[in-house]
Amino acid sequence: MRLNAFLLILLLGSFLLLLFACGAPENQPMGTIDLGLPDEQSDSVRVTSMNGELIEYILEAVHIDRWYDKKLVLADTIKITTFNDDGTVKSVITCDKARMDEVSNILIGRHNVRIKSENGLLKSTFMTWDRSTEEIVAKGQVILIRDGTTLTGYELKTDVDLEKIEMINVSAEGLLDEEDVDL
User: Fold this and answer.
1) pTM
2) Distance CA 179, CA 183 (A)
């Protein structure tokens, strides 16, 4: 009987040792990078970028975190309005989450990405915007609505004006002019 009690205590002790010695890792979701605390946090942000007397763009966001040494900005619920030289709206870009790399001048937008210009409306869940070249790449399923025509495809390359469009695996609804399609 004493041997059974001893084995039970030894087994229970081993179990408790394993339970508490092998604790769970820190509460950090898989796939995330610990950036540390941001150097700057802002709520209800509105930034106007000027080039002389001309407004280049207006950026609005619900919340922004900025890391100076990493030259990185993360934003929630963002809207960027770009302007032509005559002051008219060129395009409006919106998304739920954005990451702006200030070194490479690239903005990555995620979730409910929308780009609206006089040439149409682009909908996607992910896009990168190289602000140096004005090239936009939308990955995954994309929808382009233009002149009563809806184009659906995967991976689209365009400019901020939605003038030059390259799309993979396209289907369409509506009317297309043959001159608008380059095969």
Assistant:
1) 0.71
2) 10
